[in-house]
Design a protein that fits this description.
Elements: E1 2-3, H1 4-10, H2 16-24, E2 28-30, E3 33-34, E4 41-42, E5 48-50, E6 53-54, E7 63-68, E8 96-97, E9 106-112, H3 115-122, E10 130-137, H4 142-150, E11 152-154, E12 157-159, E13 161-170, E14 175-182, H5 189-196, E15 201-209, E16 212-213, E17 222-224, H6 227-235
Helix pairs in contact: 1-2
């Protein structure tokens, strides 16, 4: 037995908070009976409907990795009408992105309709590594590298960097290309880290999530994760 709002979220219909709003508004029924009490528990055999539509009938979980282009929103919808990561994937499933990449940040993002899987990937205790390549303005110094390795405090919390690699220094254009691996997922954390060092980020791309890489996926391309890959994430 699980709480109704959690089941709705795990089915990929809506976030848990939105599911709670739907329940309170009287839009959710279990076995044909309207439920308005938060915390109501249901079993896998109960029929759940929202506005009359059954949402847990023959549910099939889907898992995708997408090479996100620039100027695409990491969201299901956008009030401003901008293109979202969901728009790029041809599926009828109610998938959503796991975490987010900024509007102009490119690279690897995972999408699914499996709430448990998404929660596993994002939970801080699992410490799943994420690797980025950042092009920054300025030539990074040895002192700045030491600062990063020691741990820079942002918003009263230290950013722990697992790996740091200087891929290139362009003296003609006064830029540095840096590969960085972290395990946390705070918003804009990589940009904030470099901005603290007075190294503004010009371009940012995520190239790896846990063991998963983009392989040969071009910008805007995607593929489904295999069951083996999904199970491997649970073992991390």
């Amino acid at each position: 037995m699980e709480r109704l709002q959690k089941v709705i979220a795990n089915l990929g219909y809506a976030s848990r908070r939105k599911a709670e709003e739907l329940i309170v508004a009287g839009k959710v029924a279990v076995n044909g009976q309207i439920i308005t009490e938060l915390g109501t528990k249901v079993s896998e055999n109960d029929v759940i409907s929202i506005d009359g539509e059954i949402i847990n009938k023959n549910i099939k979980y889907e898992y995708y990795v997408l090479n996100k282009p620039r100027q695409v929103i990491s969201s299901v919808t956008d009030p401003a009408g901008r293109k979202t990561v969901v728009d790029l994937i041809a599926t009828e499933a109610r998938i959503y992105p796991v975490g987010r990449l900024d509007y102009n940040t490119t690279g690897l993002i995972i999408l699914t309709n499996d709430g448990d899987f998404a929660n596993h990937l994002m939970h801080p205790s699992n410490n799943i590594a994420k690797t980025y390549v950042a092009k920054v303005e300025g030539l990074i110094t040895k002192e700045q590298i030491l600062q990063i390795k020691k741990g820079i405090v942002i918003d009263n919390r230290k950013v722990n960097v697992s790996k740091l690699k200087i891929k290139n220094k362009d003296f003609n254009h006064n830029t540095s290309l840096i590969e960085i691996t972290i395990t946390e997922g705070r918003n804009h954390i990589v940009k904030k880290l470099f901005e603290t060092l007075k190294l503004p980020v010009l371009k940012l791309s995520r190239i790896q999530y846990g063991f998963l890489t983009l392989d040969n996926l071009k910008s805007g391309e995607y593929r489904m994760l295999s069951l083996k890959e999904v199970k491997k994430f649970y073992s991390l």
